[in-house]
Amino acid sequence: QVQLVESGGGLVQAGGSLRLSCAASGRTFSSYAMGWFRQAPGKEREFVAGISWFGGSTYYADSVKGRFTISRDGAKTTVYLQMNSLKPEDTAVYYCAAAPSRLGVPAPLESEYGSWGQGTQVTVSS
Questions:
Q1: How far apart are CA 7 and CA 103, in angstroms?
Q2: Cα–Cα distance, 51 to 43 (Å, whole number)
Q3: Distance from the CA of 85 to the CA of which of 66, 70, 104, 125 falls in 20 to 30 A?
Q4: Stretches in the chain below the pLDDT threshold 50
């Protein structure tokens, strides 16, 4: 099992930027793809971005394409979500997720991911 801890959330004005981090521990020697999801108040959790084990492939939700960038470090123990040009509709709790034994980018579904972080709040003011 992989343990995930997110950080970097906060309050930012519309048009601003934030970078979220997700640190993985535990079975980090196993290959796993990573992803970010978010859940706004009163809404279901939705996919934001995914990245392959080697970091060469990424996939984004249409709502964040061109504004958000997912990446992972060389040690493959930390994944980042760089969020630029933030909008009030980006306000949500952001969750990091790991898909064990996956090299490629999983389908943008919660069921593809087996481990989840506790979430970090991102609030974008207008």
A1: 24
A2: 24
A3: 104
A4: none
Residues in CB range of 48: below 8 A, 6 or more apart: 35, 36, 37, 38, 60, 61, 64, 68, 81, 94
pLDDT of 83: 98
Rg of the chain, C-alpha, whole Å: 13
- In the 8-state DSSP scheme, what is residue 112? G
Angstrom distance (rounded) from CA 13 to CA 82: 15
For the four alpha carbons of 31, 25, 106 and 72, in that order, the dihedral sign comes to: negative
Non-local (6+) Cβ contacts of 30 within 8 A are 2, 100, 101
Rounded Cα distance between 58 and 125, Å, is: 28
